[in-house]
Amino acid sequence: MAEPVNGWEARGKPPTLFKRFEFARYAETRAFLDALAELAEQVGTHPQNINFGSTYANITLEAGNGESLTETEYALARRIDGLIVSGG
Amino acid sequence: MAEPVNGWEARGKPPTLFKRFEFARYAETRAFLDALAELAEQVGTHPQNINFGSTYANITLEAGNGESLTETEYALARRIDGLIVSGG
Known about the structure:
four-stranded antiparallel beta sheet; homodimer; alpha+beta; 40% helix
């Protein structure tokens, strides 16, 4: 069974993994979204949904197998968290 | 009074202007979002909310004066439409 990831919330059926990120300025939000788009291309999976405004981005990851969240989604969630740490 | 714009829907209170754009592939969605971000920087106004997945982007523009939609929002809506036309 996949382990929980800091601040990510399992939701719904089919299951998804959700987290809200907040930023001080639009430039930071934009940098995060650009880094996320690059990460998505690297891993070949785009988040099911990204909902953003000037200073926030809500990310929803879907279960790749359509049935349950696995280490694949949790690993991606951690890499998304890592964009914040490494990107400043 | 501001004129309506093709496919944009006035909503809510405070008023917003909403439109859904659909794309054949993620690459097209991404190109649209990148062009939209550049446009937002040019005009100095970011849409209130952008909600996107691999093949769609839902755009919400808010009334800049907080009270009613004006030509400012409709002009921005038309420029966003133009991103599709010019960006292919």
